[in-house]
Design brief:
The protein is α/β, with parallel strands linked by helices and 339 residues long. Helix content is 37%, strand content 19%. It has a 7-stranded mixed β-sheet with strand order 5-4-3-6-12-8-13, sandwiched between helices. A 3-stranded antiparallel β-sheet has the order 9-10-11, with no helix packed on it. Its main location: Golgi.
Length: 339
């Protein structure tokens, strides 16, 4: 018996049923089809559904893949973020100069700061070691961050390194090396000296990015006064508040100012002096002509702290490992990653 005969026989049997019974069967079939359609609509988004606007469903070898794509909804979401968290807008470049030196806390400090910079758009990180050779551990860390970086060295001159008494001009050779790199490789943007042992609010990087000449802002946890900052009265600069004035024209902290790259390039003689305690003052004075009254006041007229001198507690160097007891164990590997 072929399929046509079976179909005809089925139709004939239906026709012999009472009309009410036929209607019930037809209605039941329609309900089943409707429920099936709803189920498919819920599981698989249709071409013009809201979900389809957010995701593109692609068939590849029978598999369905959900790919996120740019959409109006995504753009709206980004537009609601604070400006310093957005990476979908074009912003001037930042050149962050970080002097560093070998010590027990070095990798921990650099790791923490790297995780901050990962959230900052269009940034170049200049990490400059006070050493003759680059540390492989620092190089490995920098490569792992995915940041745009330059790994340089600039050892302290021997005449200062071998100084028998008094403070040494730490970080000066590093910062001057960074300034040289910026002069040779940058044409615009903003330069900022950021030590690896500070704590930074992301808003800071957004604010300094638009510096036209020299901008300044408060730094927390500095000296016994607790803060170093320009003094602002009725919206106008009126002096400096710092725990160590010492006759300085610019008594500010190293983390408390940023410089326009164009402004720096117009002053080829600007440099940082090897004079402990007067590094910031000497550098800012070398930007002449430039006077304190020309400072660009950031952080809501210097009423907010966006950077702190947290200064991680110093740790003693790691003791020598007993290889007889711990050789060929994970402890031997861990000790190699400790400065």
């Amino acid at each position: 018996m072929n399929n046509d005969c079976i179909l005809n026989e089925w139709i004939s049997s239906i026709m012999r049923l009472p009309i009410k019974m036929c209607l019930l069967i037809i209605i039941g079939c329609l309900v089943v089809l409707y429920q099936y359609h709803l189920t498919r609509s819920w599981v698989l988004p249709q071409q013009h559904s809201d979900i389809q606007e957010m995701y593109n469903i692609k068939g590849l070898d029978g598999n369905k893949i959900l790919d996120s794509k740019d959409s109006d909804a995504n753009n709206n979401c980004c537009s609601m973020m604070p400006p310093y968290l957005r990476k979908d807008i074009n912003v001037p470049p930042l050149y962050i100069i970080t002097p560093t030196y070998k010590r027990a806390e070095q990798l921990a400090e650099l790791t923490r700061f790297a995780h901050t910079l990962m959230l900052v758009p269009n940034v170049s990180w200049l990490v400059i070691e006070d050493a003759f050779e680059k540390s492989p551990l620092v190089a490995k860390l920098l490569d792992k961050t995915g940041l745009r970086y330059e790994h340089l060295t600039a050892p302290m001159p021997e005449e200062y390194k071998n100084k028998k008494s008094g403070p040494k001009p730490r970080g000066v050779s590093n910062r001057n090396k960074g300034i040289q790199w910026v002069r040779a490789n940058a044409v615009d943007g903003v330069l900022y000296f950021a030590d690896d042992d500070n704590t930074y609010d992301l808003e800071l990087f957004h604010e300094i990015r638009y510096t036209k000449r020299v901008s300044m802002f408060p730094v927390g946890l500095v000296t016994k006064l607790g803060v170093s900052s320009p003094i602002v009265k009725n919206g106008i600069f009126s002096g400096f508040y710092d725990g160590w004035i010492a006759g300085r024209k610019f008594p500010v902290d190293m983390a408390g100012f940023a410089i326009s790259v164009k402004f720096l390039l117009q002053r080829p003689n600007a440099t940082m002096p090897y004079k402990p305690g007067y590094e910031e003052d000497g550098f800012l004075k070398s930007l002449t002509p430039f006077e304190p009254k020309e400072i660009e006041l950031l952080a809501s007229n210097c009423s907010k702290i966006l950077v702190w001198h947290t200064q991680t507690k110093r740790n003693d160097p790691s003791t020598t490992l007993d290889l007889t007891k711990y050789g060929s164990t994970n402890i031997e590997i861990l000790k190699k990653s400790i400065m």
